[in-house]
Amino acid sequence: MPKPVIDYKKCKMSMTCIDVCPMDVFEKEKDKVVVKHPEKCIGCRACEVQCPHGAIKIEE
Q1: Closest to 47 measured CA to CA, from 1, 60, 14, 39
Q2: Which of helix, strand or coil describes residue 19?
Q3: What is the mean pLDDT of residues 32-52?
Q4: 3-state secondary structure 29-43
Q5: Cα separation of 19 and 51, whole Å?
Q6: CB crowding 8-40: b at 16 or more within 10 Å, else e
Q7: N or C terminus: fewer CB in 10 A for the chain?
Q8: Model's pTM, two decimal places?
Q9: In this predicted structure, what is the pLDDT of residue 4?
Q10: Domain 3-59 part of CATH 3.30.70.20
Q11: Which residues, including other chains, have CB under 8 Å from residue 16's CB and lie 6 or more apart?
């Protein structure tokens, strides 16, 4: 089962992951983006590929 992981040391809050995820896995929560619904991840890697800061990795 794919699992998106955010590296908060790299994350600059571009919120690209929220915009590109077709399954609404990510949400903004207070002052950061979180993996709100990891069970919905289909492993398409759109978030990983399009994050301009390389802050997201999909673990298998």
Answers
A1: 14
A2: helix
A3: 97
A4: ECCEEEECCHHHCCC
A5: 10
A6: eeebeeeebbeeebeeebbeeeeeebebeeeee
A7: C
A8: 0.92
A9: 98
A10: yes
A11: 47, 50, 51, 52
